[in-house]
Amino acid sequence: MFLTNDLNSQMPTVELLLALQSHVSLPIVAAGGIGSKGDIQKLVELGSCGVQVGTAFLLCNEAKTSKVHRTSLKSNDQITAITNVFSGRPARGIRNKLMIELDYISEEVPKFPYASIAIAPLRAKAESHLSCDFTPLWSGTNRNACEEVSASDLIKTLTS
């Protein structure tokens, strides 16, 4: 996805899959916005050899997702954006104060892994007050499949 720093040129998963097929002879694994059996079937029908599901697992019982992160994932009014302020590398997360204040993509952010180390004290203090202002709230654009179930139950739902 991140072939350029121009975030406006990024493509949705289906568009990217279709564009890559005519230029790549290797198997393509689709990732991004996948949260249902229907999503998986569509991508396989379009030529993906497999999929990577991410956000759907964040509320699973086995996930180590923090309390403030879980609360944010359950909220339907949250907006996601791509940022590098938490890790030094671009990734999608639910918008919060740190992303807005430091700008979503900043050249001044320390390189990976130092950005997360630098904000750790702020994050810990904020989370102790149940604030997510300094927490990386990783999330894709499709949180519809996020449920508090076991990972095995989610896999069964996605594959049966």
Helix-strand pattern: HEHEHEEHHH
Which range best describes the helical content: under 10%, 10-25%, 25-40%, 40-55%, 55-70% or over 70%?
25-40%
* Oligomeric form: single chain
Based on DSSP secondary structure assignment, what is the total number of beta strands? 4
Describe the model:
The protein starts with 12 loop residues before the first helix and ends with a helix. With 160 residues, it is of the alpha+beta class. The strands form two sheets. Strands 1-2 form a two-stranded parallel sheet. Strands 3-4 form a two-stranded antiparallel ribbon. The model has no long low-confidence stretch (mean pLDDT 93). It is built from six helices and four strands. It has a domain at 63-145. This is Putative oxidoreductase protein. It comes from Photobacterium angustum (strain S14 / CCUG 15956) (Vibrio sp. (strain S14 / CCUG 15956)). One of its GO terms (molecular function) is nitronate monooxygenase activity.
For this entry, give a set of tags.
160 residues; alpha+beta; two-stranded parallel ribbon; two-stranded antiparallel ribbon; 4 strands
In short:
The protein is an alpha+beta fold and 160 residues long. It has helices at residues 13-21, 37-45, 67-74, 97-102, 114-128, 151-159; strands spanning 29-31, 50-52, 80-83, 91-94.
Topology record:
Layout: H1 13-21, E1 29-31, H2 37-45, E2 50-52, H3 67-74, E3 80-83, E4 91-94, H4 97-102, H5 114-128, H6 151-159
Parallel strand pairs: 1-2
Antiparallel strand pairs: 3-4
